[in-house]
């Protein structure tokens, strides 16, 4: 079935008018849970560099990539390592991934990054570390606006330990892009909502990302979200939905194959593992009581990853 294109709102991070930007973000998060973010400060050149280094990595022979295979979250995930929809009969999502995070602090020690050797990919690590730091700057700015959008103090997410310098992770993705000969939709990433607070996505421009605005409507209606060069596609995750008592929507999305190889980079702005996520006072009242009990971020992630990743049990360290 042909899908239609969803025109998402565009947020300009360089606008000096913080209050109107926060209002636009609020509207976007209430309506879609998805928006484009432009003028965010990460150069197109930087994004292209990360995508091309990612391509270099995924072009390595499988046995060299398997040396970096993940045991927890960080490292290489071969095809079909993740499966979001347990109901799907297929063996798993048709994508390869590589996940890395900060090398600093407790998390950097507990979950060391698995960097490819310098002989193989000399420019890889500096490009990836630079990207991490650049996107963190965007995340810090964006979360201050999200706090304003929720009528909170600008530094709310910093104060509650949600905004951590070390907890966010970067996931490089490669979709091989084969089509299912039977004409069925082939999922590179099956339908899911993101687990954390906010995700910032960059792609190489190959289509495939789709969102479903109403997950309760059967059958699900999927709309295409095309990439805009230089802009991030930003979406709300489940922990933000819990914080806001469902006011901000963590929208179902997926990546379908269009018969072309596709590369993307997702940055998950996850809260500190010890941060307790509980309904914001401004988002509940007597007629709308909290819908979700408080949860420690790390407990929540472990629960979700153990449902979606093959052999995740080794990830329990804190
Ligand atoms: O590759 C994409 O465009 C989206 C990936 C995604 O939704 C995810 O990894 O959570
Ligand atoms: Fe996602």
Q: What can you tell me about this protein's structure?
A:
The chain has helices spanning 18-31, 44-58, 62-66, 105-110, 124-149, 156-159, 238-243, 297-308; strands spanning 10-12, 34-38, 75-77, 96-100, 169-175, 187-192, 198-203, 209-212, 223-224, 232-236, 252-256, 262-269, 276-277, 295-296. The chain is of the alpha+beta class. It has one domain: B-lactam Antibiotic, Isopenicillin N Synthase, Chain (Jelly Rolls), CATH 2.60.120. β1 (10-12), α1 (18-31) and β2 form a beta-alpha-beta unit. α1 (18-31) crosses α5 and α2 (44-58) crosses α5. The longest helix has 26 residues, at 124-149. It is globular. The chain starts with 9 loop residues before the first strand and ends in a 10-residue tail after the last helix. Bound molecules: 2-oxoglutaric acid and fe (ii) ion (FE2). Fe (ii) ion is lined by residues 192, 194, 253. InterPro entries: DIOX_N (IPR026992), IPNS-like_FE2OG_OXY (IPR044861), IPNS-like_sf (IPR027443), Oxoglu/Fe-dep_dioxygenase_dom (IPR005123).
Which overall shape is indicated by the principal axes computed on the Cα atoms? globular
User: Helix count?
Assistant: 8
Number of domains: 1
- The largest sheet has its strands arranged as 1-2-10-7-12-5-4-3
* CATH class term: Mainly Beta
Protein name: Fe2OG dioxygenase domain-containing protein
InterPro entries: DIOX_N (IPR026992), IPNS-like_FE2OG_OXY (IPR044861), IPNS-like_sf (IPR027443), Oxoglu/Fe-dep_dioxygenase_dom (IPR005123)
GO molecular function, one term: metal ion binding
Family: Belongs to the iron/ascorbate-dependent oxidoreductase family.
